[in-house]
Design goal:
Largest sheet: 4 strands, parallel
Order of helices and strands: HEHEHEHEHH
Helix content: 55-70%
Structural class: alpha/beta
Radius of gyration: 21 Å
Distance between the termini: 55 Å
Number of helices: 6
Strand content: 5-15%
Number of strands: 4
Strand order of the largest sheet: 3-2-1-4
Shape: extended
């Protein structure tokens, strides 16, 4: 019983501490990370949130490595960054393919250098209810939205070889 009360008071104390810390950070936010000179590997950079992040990070002075399975959309993002006189590289890659990730990792190592920030943004959505989704789409969704995170997360170890 005493142990349970101690744990309950500890939990309440931890929650109150985090509320207080969050409230203070409203008025005194922590400093933002400076990304100037960083090499950012961004998957899914051809469209949507990935494209918006690429265009935002380039303005902050980072070198953007845009990766997408859609070559045309990816090239468009890279070209828009280059048109502003900033640094970007584009690579077509199927993030669900371990071999394709390894291939792109080697290219990035040779062309750009060591990646310092990884943003694993690529993903697909079928837009259908699970039971209405075709088998191949479920398989591809799992490969891109789950397994790709493992393969892409190995990127720095692959580049450092």
């Amino acid at each position: 019983m005493v142990c349970l009360l101690i744990e309950a008071f500890s939990l309440v104390g931890i929650i109150l501490w985090h509320f207080l810390k969050s409230f203070i950070q409203i008025f005194f936010p922590p400093p933002r990370k400076d990304v100037r000179g960083e090499i950012i590997f961004l998957t899914g950079a051809g469209r949507g949130i990935g494209r918006m992040m690429a265009l935002k990070f380039d303005k902050l002075g980072a070198t953007i490595v845009c990766v997408d399975i859609n070559q045309m959309a990816n090239d468009s993002t890279v070209q828009e960054i280059k048109d502003q006189g900033l640094s970007a590289y584009g690579y077509k890659c199927d993030c669900s393919s371990r071999e394709d990730i390894y291939r792109v990792a080697e290219l990035v190592k040779n062309d750009v250098g060591d990646v310092t920030i990884l943003i694993n943004n690529a993903g697909i959505v079928s837009g259908k209810k699970f039971l209405e989704t075709e088998d191949w789409m479920i398989q591809k969704t799992m490969e891109v939205n789950t397994m790709a995170h493992f393969w892409v997360s190995l990127l720095n170890s692959l580049i450092s070889k």
